[in-house]
Amino acid sequence: QVQLQESGPGLVKPSQTLSLTCTVSSGSITTSFYGWSWIRQPPGKGLEWIGVIAYDGLTYYSPALKNRTSISRDTSKKEFSLQLSSVTPEDTAVYYCNARVGPTDYWGQGTQVTVSS
Predict the structure, then answer these.
(1) Per-chain mean pLDDT for the chain
(2) Radius of gyration of the chain (CA)
(3) Residue 30 has pLDDT above 90, yes or no
């Protein structure tokens, strides 16, 4: 069983960089075939996939966000992180970290991030 916990500021000013970290409670983020994703849900909208860092360290990003997104990891701390630059109020959302292996998904509880001055 993988447990995930997001952490980071709940309020970010426009034009700044949003930074979130997901801590994995068990196992290793290098375990084969796991993908570690960031997903968000803006108010009143559906889920939006932001990007993933795979077990081998490769990253893939949503084309809509790739110019502003970076996902990295610290294997010793069992953490992976999201940085989203040049944020606007449209980036206001609940941000989730997610682990997927095969058909199985694990989710963090989500963290609200509001972009406002």
Answers:
(1) 96
(2) 13
(3) no
